[in-house]
C-alpha cells in the first residue's frame, strides 16, 4: 500500500458514493483500514459523511471515528442515534474519549455524562480538568496491572483474560495493594523467560515515570532519550493513574515543532489545521507580533531621520540599505535558528553560553569577510560604484554580519535564561534589532569614510 | 527519575572519576541506565572515557557504546582490544552496527570486516551501500519470522527459543519458503488468542510495507498515520529484508524537522550537532545562501537608484524603507511558514492551491488594513509626519502586506510543484522578493501622492 494506491482507492470510493452504489461500497469499506477510511471523509460533504459512516461495521465505526477531525465528528454526532453514539464511545480508548469530549459542545457532553456510570463520570470530570499540554491530558487508563507475587504463568493468564480492551499489553505495571507503582515488566520478558519465575524476580525497578502535570515537551524528550513505548503517569503518592503511549507522543512532537515554527515566524501558535481555520482566526494570530515589530521599527525611522543630512548629500546611500538590512537579518536568523533548535533538542544548554558566543564570533568573521569581499567585487564591477561608496558598504557588511551573528546566537540563550521561550528570538525579532544596528553602523562609517 | 536527579547523579559520578575511586564507581555504574551513562561521557575527557568504559559490564558496554557520539566511539575503539571490540559489536543490533561502521575510518572497518564471517561480510557490504536517507539505512535484521502453518502455541515456543536477540518481538513476520512477506502477527494476538489457532487464521494480510530505497520522511509519515511500532522493508520481489522500529523513526522526525528549520533559515542542512561542528564547517553551510540572497538584493539597489530623484527631493522617504521592508518580510514569512509546515505534515497538498490563495487573500486584507490603520495613527501622533507622507506609507503598507502574503502563501506550493523543497521558499527568500515589490509600490505611490 503506497500513496498512489491510496489515491486510486479514494477515487473508487468517491465514485461509489456519488453513484449511490451503497451495497458495493459497504463491501469495499470492510477491506480498508480505518485511518484510510477517515481520510476519504475529507473529500465528502456532511450528508455523504453520515451515509458512509452508517455503512461501517460496529468495530470500524469507533476506529474511524477516532481518526476524524473535530468538525467531522460533530456532523456525525448530530446525525446518529444516541445508542450508536454510546456504542462508539464504549469502544474508544479513554484518552480518545476525553479528547472527543473536550471538543464537543456542552450539551453533547452533558448527554454523554448522563448515560455514564457514576464512577466513570467522576473519572471523566477529573481527566477533563488536566491542563491541555500536561501528562494528564495525554494519558489513558487501559493498562495491565500485575502483582509482584504472581508467577510469569499467572501473569500471562491474567493478561489473556484482561488484555483485550487494553491500549497496550507490551509493558505491564506492577502495583502494590495501594496502587503504588513498584515496577515494570515487558511482555517480551514474560514470553521469553521461564514461566515459573515470579514477577518480583523479573520486574524492572529502575524505571522512568512522570507526573500528571508534567509538560508534554519534557515527556516527549523522555520517550526519545530512553526509547520508550509507554510511560507510566503517577500522582503525588506515586500511585499509577495512567499511561502514555508512543503514538500520542508522535503527535506531540509534531505539535511542538509546529508551535516552534509558528513562533519563529512571529505568530501566536495554534493547533488548528490551516485549511480548517477561518480568515479572522488566522489574522488574529498574525497581527499582534506584526504590530509589535512594526512599532519597534520606529527606531530605524529615528535613526535615518537623524542622518537625513547625510542622505540629502548622497542620496544613493539609500540604495544599499535594503541589501545591508536583509543580509544582516539573514545572517542573524541563521545563528538564532541553529541555537533555538539546538536548545529545543537539548543539545545546547544555558551553560554553553560562552561556547556559543565564541563559536559565533569565529563563524561571523569568516562569513563577514567572505561576503564583504564578494560585495566589494560586485559593486566595483556590476554596480560601477565609486571606490569610497563600495568600501563603505563592504565594511558595513562585515561589521553588521558580525553583530548580527553575535546577537542572533546569544539572544535565544538569554531568553531562556529569563524563562522566555527562545523561539521568539528568531528571524523577525533578530532582524528588527539587527536592522537598527546596521543603520547606525552604516551612517557612521559613511560619514567618516566619505567625509560627510 | 527526573532531570534534577540525573544532574546530581552525573556530579557524583564525575567526583568519583576525579577522585579515582574506581571500585565504588564500578558498583554505582551497575545501577545506572546505559543512556544515562552515555550522557556522563559528555563531561569526561578522552582518557577518563576509556577508564570508565573499561569499568562497565559486558552487557552495559555494548548498550552504552550504542548511545555514544561518533567522536567518543572513536576514542574508545582506539583504546580497547580487538577482542573487546568484537564482543561489543556482536551485542549491537545490526542497524547500530552499520551506523557505527559508517562513521569509522576505513582501517577500523577493514579490521572488523576481516573478523566477520563470509556471510555477515556480504550483508554488511550490502547495507553500507543503502543511501543515507533510505529505508535500507534505517532497518535492522533482527526480527521474528513465522510460518503460516504454525499454531499459536508453536509460534510462541518458536519466539521463546529465538526471541532473545531480536530487536522487537511485538510484531512478527509471516514468510513463505521464498521469504516473501505474507502477513503480520502481533505478539498481542499470540498472547490473547486461543493457542490452537493457526497463524494463517490470525495474521493480518492487509499491512503496510516499504521498499529499501524509500525515503525516510515518507516512512516517518507512515508510522504517524498508521500508529506503527515497526514497519517491514521488502525488496522488489516482496521478500522481507529488514524491519524499521519506531525508536529510529523518532530520530528521523527530529532530523527532518532540523533540516526544515535550517533550510528555512537559508542554510545548507547538516546533521552535525552545533557544539560539535567547527567554525569553518558552520560557515561553509551559511555562506552560499547569504551570498545568493545578497546578490539578489542588487535588484533593490537598482530600484532605489531609479528613484534617486524622488529621494533627493524628499530624503525623509528613506526613513520608512526599513519599517516597510521588515513588515512586508514578516507578513510574508508568516504565510510561507504556515504553508510549508502544512505541506510537511501532509495537511496541505498541491490541489489546495486555490484554497490557500483565497484564504491568504482574505487574511491579507484584514491584516493589511489593521496594520495600515495603526501605522497611520502612529505616524500622525508620534512621528508627527505630514498627512501626505503618513498616507503614502500607510497605503504602501496595506498593499505590500497583501502582496507579501500572496507571495508567501503560494511560492512554497509552486516550489513543490516544481519538485523543489518548499522549505527554501521561507522567510529569507520571501523577504528578498517582497522587498523589491515593496520598494516599487512605495516609490510609485509616493510619486503619485506627493506629486514628485
From TrEMBL, chains A, B:
SUPFAM superfamilies xrefs: CBS-domain pair, MgtE membrane domain-like, MgtE N-terminal domain-like
UniProt membrane topology term: Multi-pass membrane protein
Main location (coarse class): membrane
Top-rank taxon, per record: Bacteria
PROSITE patterns, alphabetized: CBS
GO cellular component annotations of the record: plasma membrane
TM stretches of this protein: 353-375, 381-402, 423-445
Location(s), subcellular: Cell membrane; Membrane
GO MF term set: magnesium ion transmembrane transporter activity; metal ion binding
Domain CBS intervals: 203-259
Keyword set, alphabetical order: CBS domain, Cell membrane, Magnesium, Membrane, Metal-binding, Transmembrane, Transmembrane helix, Transport
Similarity section: Belongs to the SLC41A transporter family.
Purpose of the protein: Acts as a magnesium transporter.
Subunit structure: Homodimer.
Name recorded for this polypeptide: Magnesium transporter MgtE
Amino acid at each position: 500500500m503506497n500513496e498512489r494506491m491510496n489515491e486510486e482507492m479514494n477515487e473508487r470510493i468517491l465514485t461509489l458514493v456519488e453513484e449511490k452504489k451503497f451495497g458495493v461500497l459497504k463491501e469495499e469499506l470492510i477491506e480498508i483500514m480505518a485511518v484510510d477510511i477517515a481520510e476519504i471523509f475529507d473529500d465528502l460533504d456532511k450528508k455523504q459523511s453520515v451515509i458512509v459512516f452508517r455503512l461501517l461495521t460496529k468495530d470500524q465505526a469507533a476506529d474511524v471515528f477516532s481518526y476524524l477531525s473535530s468538525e467531522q465528528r460533530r456532523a456525525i454526532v448530530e446525525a446518529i442515534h444516541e445508542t450508536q453514539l454510546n456504542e462508539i464511545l464504549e469502544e474508544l480508548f479513554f484518552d480518545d474519549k476525553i479528547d472527543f469530549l473536550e471538543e464537543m459542545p456542552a450539551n453533547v457532553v452533558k448527554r454523554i455524562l448522563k448515560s455514564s456510570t457514576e464512577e466513570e463520570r467522576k473519572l471523566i470530570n477529573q481527566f477533563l480538568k488536566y491542563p491541555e499540554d500536561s501528562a494528564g491530558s495525554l494519558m489513558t487508563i487501559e493498562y495491565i496491572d500485575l502483582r509482584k507475587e504472581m508467577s510469569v504463568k499467572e501473569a500471562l493468564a491474567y493478561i489473556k483474560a484482561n488484555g483485550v480492551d487494553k491500549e497496550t499489553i507490551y509493558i505491564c505495571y506492577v502495583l502494590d495493594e495501594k496502587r503504588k507503582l513498584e515496577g515494570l515488566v515487558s511482555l517480551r520478558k514474560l514470553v521469553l523467560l521461564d514461566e515459573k519465575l515470579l514477577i518480583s524476580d523479573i520486574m524492572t525497578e529502575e524505571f522512568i515515570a512522570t507526573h500528571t502535570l508534567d509538560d508534554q515537551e519534557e515527556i516527549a524528550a523522555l520517550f526519545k532519550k530512553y526509547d520508550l513505548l509507554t510511560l507510566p503517569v503517577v500522582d503525588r503518592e506515586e500511585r499509577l493513574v495512567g499511561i502514555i503511549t508512543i503514538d500520542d507522543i508522535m503527535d506531540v512532537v509534531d505539535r511542538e515543532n509546529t508551535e516552534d515554527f509558528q513562533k519563529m515566524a512571529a505568530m501566536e501558535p495554534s493547533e488548528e489545521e490551516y485549511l480548517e481555520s477561518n480568515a479572522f482566526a488566522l489574522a488574529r494570530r498574525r497581527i499582534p507580533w506584526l504590530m509589535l515589530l512594526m512599532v519597534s521599527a520606529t527606531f530605524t525611522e529615528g535613526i535615518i531621520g537623524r542622518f537625513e543630512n547625510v542622505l540629502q548629500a548622497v542620496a544613493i546611500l539609500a540604495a544599499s540599505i535594503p541589501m545591508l538590512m536583509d543580509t544582516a537579518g539573514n545572517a542573524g536568523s541563521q545563528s538564532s535558528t541553529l541555537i533555538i533548535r539546538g536548545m529545543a533538542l537539548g543539545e545546547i544548554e544555558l551553560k554553553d553560553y560562552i561556547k556559543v558566543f565564541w563559536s559565533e564570533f569565529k563563524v561571523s568573521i569568516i562569513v563577514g569577510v567572505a561576503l564583504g569581499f564578494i560585495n566589494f567585487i560586485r559593486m566595483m564591477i556590476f554596480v560601477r560604484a565609486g571606490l569610497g561608496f563600495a568600501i563603505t558598504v563592504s565594511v558595513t557588511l562585515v561589521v553588521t554580519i558580525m553583530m548580527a551573528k553575535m546577537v542572533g546566537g546569544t539572544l535565544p540563550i538569554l531568553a531562556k535564561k529569563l524563562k522566555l521561550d527562545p523561539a521568539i528570538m528568531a528571524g523577525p525579532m533578530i532582524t528588527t534589532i539587527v536592522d537598527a544596528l546596521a543603520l547606525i553602523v552604516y551612517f557612521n562609517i559613511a560619514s567618516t569614510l566619505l567625509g560627510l
